[in-house]
Amino acid sequence: MGTRLFEEMSVNGVKADILTYNALIMGFCKEGKMKKAAYMVKELDKDKLVPNSSTFAALITGQCVRNNAERGFELYKSMVRSGCYPNEQTFKMLISAFIKNEDYDGAVEVLKEMMDRAMVLDSDLLSTLCDGLCQCGKEELAVGMCNEIESKQLTPEGFEKMA
């Protein structure tokens, strides 16, 4: 549906704006259709439009949907280099994808980026991460992370600190 409308806009001489592109890119990414999303990014470039935070968030979402947290994190780094900044939801998406892949070190790296930006942490996500770290023998890392969160006064409501 969206691509048909996009094609009709083009045929009728209506130029798409960044919002139109982002909506299409997000739709493709949520469906895991990364090749179509990449095509839309190239079209965006042809129209001399610059990707913004929403564009990158959509692409990161797409990688996370495909369980490719590492690629999502690479896109996050590109996002920051481009002068765009993620919101809390983008960080949570990345952390969740790393946890789902049992890559707790990756999840911690993203969490540290989030803490450096003094963003609100999610109690359930943090608990899941700490549990995962403990299950894979990284209790010291989990405790150290909790101490750092507390020292930065970023402890989320409802989160029980590890002993």
UniProtKB/TrEMBL annotation:
Q: Identify the Gene3D superfamilies for this entry.
A: Tetratricopeptide repeat domain
Which PROSITE patterns does this chain map to?
A: PPR
Q: Name one Pfam family in it.
A: PPR
Look up keyword Repeat and say if it applies: yes
This protein's superkingdom?
A: Eukaryota
What keywords are annotated for this sequence in UniProt? Repeat
The UniProt entry annotates PPR repeats at 17-51, 52-86, 87-121
The answer to keyword rRNA-binding applying to this record is: no
To which protein family does this belong?
Answer: Belongs to the PPR family. P subfamily.
Q: What name goes with this protein?
A: Pentatricopeptide repeat-containing protein
What organism is this sequence from? Penstemon davidsonii
